[in-house]
Amino acid sequence: MFSVPSPDKRSQDSPEVTAPSAEWSVEIKLTHVDCNPADILVHFQGQYVSTCELDYNILRVEIQNAEKVRGPVDVGRLCLVEDDLTGRWYRGRVQNKQKDLFDVFLIDHGNVLSVSDNHLACASEELLMLPPKIVCGFFANVLPVGECWTPQTGKYFSSLMGSFINGYIHALLPHKVLILESPTITNDLSKLNFGRSVDTGTFLLFVEMLTEVPIRPDCEQIPDLLIKNQIGQGLSFKPPCVQGVENILSCCGPKQTVGEMVKVRLSAAVNPSAFYCQMICVEEELKLMSEKLALLCDSKTENIRDAPEGNLGLLCAVKGKDEKWHRGYVQFLPVNSQVRVLFVDYGYCELIKVKNICPLPSDFLMKPIMAFPCALSSVTQENEDLKKEQRDLLMKGLLGSALSVKINDFDKEHNFYHVTLCSVDPEVKTEVTPDIVAQTSKVHDHNMTIPLRCTNETRIIPSNIPKEDFEVGAVFEGYVEHVLSPGNFWIRTAKRNQDFEHLMNTLADYISTLQQEEDLLENPVPGTLCLAMYEKDLHYYRAIVTDILENGAEVFFADFGNTEKVPSWLIKKLPESFTTEPEFVLSCALAHVLPVEDVWTETATKYFRRTVSNKALEIHIIHKTNDRYLVDLHEIGTLNKESLGLRMTNENIALYWKYTPTTVFLVPA
Is it the case that residue 224 has pLDDT exceeding 60? Predict the structure, then answer.
C-alpha cells in the first residue's frame, strides 16, 4: 500500500505479550554424559571453556590451609569435605544422608564422596566466591523417539565426552542444575532418528512434571560470573508464551464437536490448562506442506528469499530448529538478527534467525491451521485418582504417544476446548473437516451483497459506493497507488489526502475495539463489501470480495487497487458507516503509448513502477470510459514537467500512440 495509516491500536486491548528475549549462550567442555535407557532426561557434566585453572589452583591451596569447623551439614548445603584416604579437603554439596553417612558431590571435580559427619566442615564465604568448576545439567528440547533411549543413542552420547559444545540455558533447577539446549546435538539426534526435537515450553513442562520441581522463571539465578564474557545474546528463563495470539489458533484451527472423541497428538504444551493438539489425520498433510515449502524456500532458482523484510506478512514460511520449513506468525520485530515466531500449526514459539524467514506463498496461506487449544477438565475437579490418571496420560502425550481426547466443552470467552485424555481407541474419529472455526461473539444485522459490474480489468466493482468523478481535460496532482502494467494502474488524488488519512485512522480505531474472532464475515459471495487484512502491514482496509476460495476469498482493496487472497478468519464485516466515503483510487491507463510487443513486458512494467513510485505527479485526464480513465502523467519537479509516456517512447520502452477523440479506447493491459 502506498500510504500506511496511523499505528495499529489493537495492542491496547489485547492480552499482554512479553517481548522476545534471547537465550544465554555458553560454551562447555563435556567431561561426562549419562544416557540411561531407564531415564528420559540425559545428564551431563562439564566445564565452562572460560574457566581459569590458575584461580582454582590457588583456591585448592586456600582450602587446605583454612580453619575447619567440623560438624554435620544439612542436605543441599555447600560445605568442605575431607577424603579420608588422602586427607585432602574439597568443596562440595551434600546430596543425601543415609544413617551416619553423607553423600557429598564435589563441585570442582564431579564425583561423589560418602563420609561421616566428622569429615565435614562449614565453608566460609571467601572459599565459595568462585563458582563451581563443574557444571551439571540435562540436555533440553530432545526426547527419545520411543518410550526410552536405545543402546545406539547411548553410544552416541558417550562419544561426546571430551568434546566442546555450544548451547543455550533455558532454565535452572535447584543447585544450579542447567537445562541446556545444544542445537548441534538435537540436530544430530533428529537426523539419526535417535531422538525427537520438541519446543522449549513443552520440554520445561515435561521436566517440571517428571521432577516435581517447579521451574523458576525469574532471572535471579544467573549461573556463574565465569560466563559473563561469553554472553552472546541475553537471558530469558521464561517459557515461550502464546498470549496475544491464542485467538489466531483458536478461531482458525479444526472445528471440534462437544461430546465427540478424536485421535490426536500433543503438539505443544505450557501447562495442563494450556496445550495444543493435532489430529492424527493431518500428519501426512503437514509433512507434505513442509516438503513443498522446503522446495520453494531452499531452491536456488527461486527469488522468494530476496523479498525485503517488509513483505513478511501475518503468516510466513519459517525454518525451525528441526531444519524443516513450517508456517509461522512473526510476533515482534527482530532483536539481534532473531525474531520470535509462533508456529501456528503446532502452538509453540521459537527464536528464529531472520535469514530463515520467507514470505509464505499464497497457496499455503489459505490452508486451515492444524492445531487447536485445549485444557484438561480434571484441573478443576477434586477427584485425585482422575487427576493422576490425566497427569500420566499428559506425560505420555508429551513423549509423543497418540491419545484419544473427549471434547467436553468449548470456552467461548477464552477460545479453548475442555478435554479428557484417554488411551487410544481405534474407533475414534480421525478424519478432519476442512472448515475453519469462526466463533463470533458479535454479528452485524446487515450483510451487504451488491450488484456486480465487470470491467476489462477482470475485477468486480461495487455499484453502490460513491466514486470520484473527473471530466476530460481535468488536471490535478496525485499519486500512483498500485501498478499491474502501464496499461492498468490505480491513482489517488492529492486533494483527498486528509479524507484518506481520516478514514484509515477511523478504521484502525474501529478494528482496535474488536477481538480476533469478532465480526467475521460468514459465507461471503462475490460482490460482498468487507474489511480485509492486508498481510504485508497487518492492517484492515475496505475491500470487495471478487472470488471464493476453499478457506478464504480473493478481495479487491477498494482504496488501493490491488487484489489479494485473504484467509476467511481475516475478513470482517464492513459497517455501513464506512461505505459512504467514495473509493480513493481511479482505474487508469497511460495515454499516448503502446507496448513494443503484444503485451506490456515485465521490463516495461518495472520501469513504469520505478518511475512513478512515491512521486507526486501532475495528472491529465485524456479520455474516460465508464469508470476507467486514460491519463497522461507528468512528474512534478522535472524540467518542463516531462510526459512519462514521451520519456518511455524516447527510451524505446514503449511505442508512441497519439490518442484522438475518435480513437477507440482499447489499451493493452
Answer: no
Task: Give the pLDDT mean for 315-325.
Answer: 87
Whether 280 is covered by a domain: the verdict is yes
Task: Judge if 257 and 186 occupy the same domain.
Answer: no
- DSSP-H helix ranges across 468-583: 497-512
3-state secondary structure 316-338: EEEECCCCCEEEEEECCCCECCE
Number of H helices, E strands in the chain: 11, 36
- Phi, psi for 527 (deg, rounded to 5): 100, -10
What crossing angle do the helices spanning 200-211 and 384-398 adopt, rounded to 10°?
140
Instruction: Let me know: does 586 contact 483? Beta carbons within 8 Å.
Output: no
Query: CB count, 10 Å around CB of 69?
Result: 11
Q: Does some domain include residue 482?
A: no
Average pLDDT of span 296-317: 56
pLDDT confidence tier of residue 496, bands split at 50, 70 and 90: very high
Question: Residue 203 falls within a domain, yes or no?
Answer: yes
The model carries a pTM of 0.63
For 558-588, how does the pLDDT look when each residue is reduced to its tens digit (9 = 90+)? 999 999 988 888 899 999 899 889 999 999 9
Domain count, the chain: 2
Q: How far apart are CA 499 and CA 563, in angstroms?
A: 22
Closest alpha carbon to 125 in 69, 65, 79: 79
Whose cell is 485418582? That residue is: 385
CATH code of the domain containing 106:
2.30.30.140
Domain that residue 187 falls in: 24-230
